[in-house]
Amino acid sequence: MIDLYTWSTPNGRKVSIMLEELDLPYAVHAVDIGKGDQFRPEFVAMSPNSKIPAIVDSEGPEAKPYALFESGAILLYLAEKTGRFLSTRTAERFDAIQWLMFQMGGVGPMFGQTHHFLRAAPEPVPYAIARYTKETRRLYAVLDQRLAAGDWLAADYSVADIATYPWVARHDWHKVELAEFPNVKRWYETIGARPAVQRGMKVPAPR
């Protein structure tokens, strides 16, 4: 059994989608980041950076419980554990890993800054809005160019797609019309039609 500590954010949804795709048994523990649950000592013991998601795998390495934080690391761990969504062929494996790192280092941080300055900043900051919305659109263009060459970010549906989809799902938050990026739009709609993705996007259930 895997215990998933999460909230309804793109990073949280990466892991719930992965667990649903793998059909692994898991229990959901909502960590309400709006109320500061992520700073509770019992959560920080699992996730030292006070960020969701985190997991505890009761059947971890050497048959011992294993706690893990950072969404990208969790996806890689679950892929290794099950042998799914990450190729064992070196080139294909690292194709997926490089696009996972692209999400972790680019899409997540930059889209997140766009979300903040368009939706949460106490007052408009024109320079920040221009900077991050421009970079967000640039990253969409990178994705679109990549997806012009194939159905997925790597050779097959992988951890890279699972990680990126929940961020693109908030395209309205960064005022991006997917029709401007037709390859991203096709990819987004294809992934969104997967039943496991639809289930994972609902975790944790809205209160």
Topology (SSEs and partners):
Layout: E1 2-6, H1 10-22, E2 26-30, H2 41-44, E3 54-57, E4 66-69, H3 71-82, H4 90-120, H5 126-147, H6 159-168, H7 182-192, H8 195-200
Provide a descriptive summary of the structure in words.
With 207 residues, this protein is an alpha+beta fold. The protein has a 4-stranded mixed beta sheet, with helices on one face. A hairpin with an 8-residue loop joins β3 and β4 (66-69). It has helices at residues 10-22, 41-44, 71-82, 90-120, 126-147, 159-168, 182-192, 195-200; strands spanning 2-6, 26-30, 54-57, 66-69. α4 packs parallel to α6 (159-168) and α5 (126-147) packs across α7 (182-192). The model has no long low-confidence stretch (mean pLDDT 96). It starts with a strand and ends in a 7-residue tail after the last helix.
